[in-house]
Specification:
Number of helices: 4
Distance between the termini: 12 Å
Strand order of the largest sheet: 1-3-5-2-4
Number of strands: 5
Helix content: 25-40%
Largest sheet: 5 strands, mixed
Structural class: alpha/beta
Length: 142
């Protein structure tokens, strides 16, 4: 089960604050870590959408990231979800998500870790905020 860690800070910090938080989080993760950036309107529900089937059907998928499929024989590569930004503005979270992903996918290795994002984002909520009226940018760590 993915453990969700929500922010303790307030809403709508500037991008440099969020960027610094993101870099610190990735840098502090295991040197063999993989990570993925996303957005959601409900972190505790979204964590269930990141369960992966066993990598028996398509081991080449992991190889594309330079990872050994044998290391992912278990069904859940993600250990935790860290919320790094929240806002009442869907446009605001989309901009933060897109900037972070773009920075990561422009290099083959981000701070020595592997980013699993293949595109700039856009797979999160389309318009409706979560039950508390906010949207979130999160990082999955595995």
């Amino acid at each position: 089960m993915i453990e969700v860690h929500e922010m303790q800070e307030g809403l709508d910090e500037s991008f440099p604050v969020v960027h610094r938080r993101f870099r610190q989080l990735v840098a502090a993760s295991n040197a063999e870590a993989i990570f993925k950036i996303g957005l959601t309107n409900w972190p505790n529900r979204r964590k269930y959408g990141h369960r992966f089937p066993k990598w028996v059907g398509d081991p080449d998928f992991l190889s594309e990231f330079g990872l050994d499929p044998e290391d992912f024989a278990q069904s859940q590569p993600w250990a935790e979800m860290r919320v790094i930004f929240e806002s009442n503005s869907l446009q605001g979270v989309r901009e933060v998500e897109s900037k972070l992903i773009l920075e990561c996918i422009e290099t083959s290795s981000y701070l020595g870790r592997t980013c699993w994002n293949l595109v700039r984002g856009g797979g999160g909520p389309k318009s409706k905020p979560g039950p508390d009226g906010t949207y979130y940018v999160y990082v999955l760590l595995g």
